[in-house]
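Troubleshooting log. The previous run stalled partway through. Resubmitting the same four chains, unchanged.
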Amino acid sequence: MTNLELNILDLSLNELLRTVNKTESILKDQYDEIKEFRDIILTARNLRFDNGNDATIFLAGSGRSGFVAKFFAMRLMHLGFHVYVFGETLVPPVHDGDIILFISKSGGENAVTDSIESTKLENIKKSKSSPSKNNMIFENVKILSVCGSFDCYLASHSDAKIVIEAERDRKSTKEESERFDSLGFNSNELVIMGTGFEDSALLILDALVVEMMNNLGLCEEDLENNHENINRPKVSKK
Amino acid sequence: MTNLELNILDLSLNELLRTVNKTESILKDQYDEIKEFRDIILTARNLRFDNGNDATIFLAGSGRSGFVAKFFAMRLMHLGFHVYVFGETLVPPVHDGDIILFISKSGGENAVTDSIESTKLENIKKSKSSPSKNNMIFENVKILSVCGSFDCYLASHSDAKIVIEAERDRKSTKEESERFDSLGFNSNELVIMGTGFEDSALLILDALVVEMMNNLGLCEEDLENNHENINRPKVSKK
Amino acid sequence: MTNLELNILDLSLNELLRTVNKTESILKDQYDEIKEFRDIILTARNLRFDNGNDATIFLAGSGRSGFVAKFFAMRLMHLGFHVYVFGETLVPPVHDGDIILFISKSGGENAVTDSIESTKLENIKKSKSSPSKNNMIFENVKILSVCGSFDCYLASHSDAKIVIEAERDRKSTKEESERFDSLGFNSNELVIMGTGFEDSALLILDALVVEMMNNLGLCEEDLENNHENINRPKVSKK
Amino acid sequence: MTNLELNILDLSLNELLRTVNKTESILKDQYDEIKEFRDIILTARNLRFDNGNDATIFLAGSGRSGFVAKFFAMRLMHLGFHVYVFGETLVPPVHDGDIILFISKSGGENAVTDSIESTKLENIKKSKSSPSKNNMIFENVKILSVCGSFDCYLASHSDAKIVIEAERDRKSTKEESERFDSLGFNSNELVIMGTGFEDSALLILDALVVEMMNNLGLCEEDLENNHENINRPKVSKK
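Second attempt completed without errors. Output:
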């Protein structure tokens, strides 16, 4: 086995790059929605409640989308937000005025309820009609989502969303097709499972962090100063 | 604040894409080393020990590099490898013949020892000279790394490595410079902290998964069948 | 505030100890069921499948019951079992012949489905009637539980269970009542929320580990040799 | 194997209970120190910094001691403290005035530096002599510990500590010795590894939660209202 060349690494990476490069057009096509998405997050720094705290941002995602959520959560903390990830040890209760951000390719009702332990979004956003102390009333909880289609359950229940379709629509050249055939490789599997969605979501959210850094009047050093400081190696910048 | 346009989201995303697109040249420039990197992982499926188990692959990383490690770990599991991530609840002992893969931009001695709880690589790979039962002898533990420079501690102690330099060498156009000035934005901060390294590492490793899928004679459906199956929404493929 | 004595620490600890000491009678009263509980776990080391692996044990629990699950999971690993905890990074699919152990005080349908991401036990144990490839058929998955009542959903769906009722039935002395009154303390809150259940569950399961250690012909050193070995301080025993 | 009785479950549980019951005398013998331990935690709710936040409490522990840390961290959150656990996704920087609580049986320098990623306590508490912006100055960080001996590195560097020695000093009766012999069981292994320490630490800290609940003028319902509220089953109290 160790004599094998790198059979399709180049084509797989090339196809993954082609997929994530589409985020530039997503940004243009969904400009207003992404602006709204950003604004909802930014308002978490402005709202002041009785206890003097900012609104809290909760991140939800399963599997590798959950890792994307953690990537973004850490940067939100660096930006100075109060942020938690469902499924971690420490998750406070959601209060009215808070924000829940879901990352889910399928965006199906099941996927969403998985992420937040089987509570439907309808229940989270239920009306004032049951104002007793024992019932949650979240009429002002904002739902954000990064999902894989415009018509999924999650998209239709979100206050703002970023949709990454990550379709597999690649056409192989004749030369490539022969190469795939000789390897017994299905050319439709150059990017597998949710990879295109997850990696695109990460890149868009990482750019959004820089956007918000500027919006909030912060610079890179401010974010570094909000990073865990116990025994972190100093980062030297060029 | 909510009247703000998306000030620099487009330029930040564009610059992040420019950074990750450099992975194509990394692949060409480090072809032999990446081949060796892959081969060491593949051998974990071949080695058979007395107990009939495959070699185990341990992933190590701190912070967001740790999330990259988790992304790759999950796919290694899908490929059928025995894999663990340092810092999780369940981490078995490392045995001779196992593999440790580090993901660290700085690759400094401190960063590495952080990732695996202050054991130096010298100790992990120490010689046979102390063969008593109470001492670990790991002469055959293979060290793999994804790191940010060719001359860091981690790179110099690895059996195979992938180096992602992710330098910030962008030149702004005159128009862009004026835009940055008007926003009070430092153009060197379009991609911040370790983002360029982390996102590039994720993309390369995700492509490597597809490469190994083919090497092992597997297809996408095989990987899906190795995914957690309790209440996962069915993924329909186009 | 710093001049306060330790108001009720002694009574709270005393009451918590009284609660956990009841585990001795649980052990007597549920002897046969606990024996069955143990036997189901032990069989995971005996069953051999086509791929030569043992059966896998999956642990499920939410909140602090989830930490009890992690405590036990680590010891099961030390005993040599293949074990995973739902919610961690790496969770393989459940296969027929595997074991799922739930830890939940309420044991309600909601609590259980939370723990394993909204799959009902009925679905996990569904019959052979739908043998297509896309459906899970788990007729031989064993369900174990540690729960807080004999008549909860979880108990009624388990192949073996340990029930820890942890009732709050303390009677205060006259002297204690006066002390509580002077502090404005509700004597019914000496042990709060699920604490009595969780701590009792931990103690019973920790004893069960030693029982199984002996059943499997292992000693303490064998378990230590299955513990993470990277930079662990040597434990000296008296 | 399935015909085996429960060989030593009763004696193991009995011995574990004997160990944890010793916490009552720990409480008496270390009254003043535990009072100081509590007071340092309580002050985290009083201190106000420039940004209007309370002091933050950081929990550190490895392996099963790390789970004890998570148990206590969750309750501290329920009590209204700002609390984080090293090793989780979200860990902010430590600032002057914050508190770090270590849970470690050995309390050795290595164990401590493992828990917080190789920073020595000397460095955390280093003096004002290097007041540049890039250096951490933590002269007012308080170190708390729950450890296994009075003379370990951790104990000697703590502002307040709870010491749980959890010695194995059991004497077997003649009848028990015969039973152990017939089973080939080492009576010194009725409680293994760190179990006695970990379970005792959990019980003491759980009682301390109730003590602080009263100190802060809170009741059980207040803590429940600080628990994650998304899809938690309602807890009915007797």
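Takeaways: The longest helix of chain C spans residues 195-215. Residues 31-168+194-216 of chain C form a domain with the Rossmann fold fold (CATH 3.40.50.10490).
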